Amino acid sequence: MAAPTNTRFAVAVHVLTYLASCAAAGRTAPVSSDELAGSTAVNPVHVRKVLGPLRTAGLVRSRPGAHGGWELAVDPKTVNLAQVWQVLQGDDQVLGIHGPNPACAVGANIQGVLVDLDRRVARAVLEELSGITLDDVMSTAGFNAEDFAILLP
Hints:
This protein is mostly helical. The chain has 7 helices and 2 strands; from the N terminus they run αααββαααα. The protein has a two-stranded antiparallel sheet.
């Protein structure tokens, strides 16, 4: 199976969990894009591209300047992953539907079937993600107070 090419959602959940963990540890200093990139193993520019829409949605806030960075702007118990998905995915297709050949008997009729399937998959994804909060992610990952202490500057 081919590896997914869009990692925005996974990176978003990762950095939101990191920011929530920092807050739980009592960290008051913002977290730099470089620090988040180090945890996610992606380029800091990609981290900022993921965080931008989350900031616009009010899930994170940024502080400019040399000692600036990112902070969680919401309670992890109140944010579900469907909210994160919708911020990043919007109404974009989930399945990556191609443009079939309309001159082909199958190609001429398959597009509607694929579009309907994509909508159904998108609804199922949102339904599943709506029941998972950021706090649930932290709990499922097994974070505890001792783990948070290493996140303090």
